[in-house]
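Justification of computing resources. Each target in the renewal requires a structure prediction run like the one illustrated here; the chain below, 239 residues long, is used simply to show the kind of job we budget for.
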Amino acid sequence: MASKKFRPAWWAVIVVALLSALMIALGVWQLQRGFAKQALLDRYQQASVREPMPLAAGDVARRGEIGRALARGRYDGAHQLLLDNQSHDGAPGYHVWTPLRQDDGSTVIVDRGWIAHDTARAPDALVVPDTAVEVRGFWRTPPVPGMRLPTDNCAVLPWPRTVQFPTLDDLRCLYGARIAAGVLLMDPAEPHGFVRDWQTAPELNPAKHYGYAGQWFAFTLTLLVIFVKMSFRVPSSEK
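Resulting structure tokens:
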């Protein structure tokens, strides 16, 4: 009986090498996303034990950092923003961004949480108190999409305006120069908000990305095992 020898086809070597490189790259990418989500959760945890600091017009949220802050003043309920393309438990909706006019004349953008599409358009859904309030929360930079599409968030539109990830320049255009450079994520315990799961949202779960990475690495290993097994053949001269 002729013995089998490892004789892979040249085209199979190329295909397997390319597919393996692609799947390993996807696995590494998922690992990196998991590490980034864990680092973000750690920053939330570290910030949650700090005393909130009052915000002023010159305060700037630093990229990659999460702080604790508070704002005092009155909500400007007539000029709210609906941050589009936000989901919760698979349901589409918005994040409600409400400007808060502070006593010193500065403006702080307060993210009051997630609200469903249909609910946001109901009468009085976004109503805010007309009395002075004090709001505590996490202070961070505005969210940045993976790919920013051309859009004019400062266009003349009726309020509340639906926006696509406004930049600080967009916010200055809408609310003036005396705006604190960041977004205050309202604490879940604060009144007059919506769904606020800043630290527990499924999108922040690093284990999901670790699981995806494991799947890609498992696919790579399976492909290599199949490739090796199919490449052991009896030489044509010995058949």
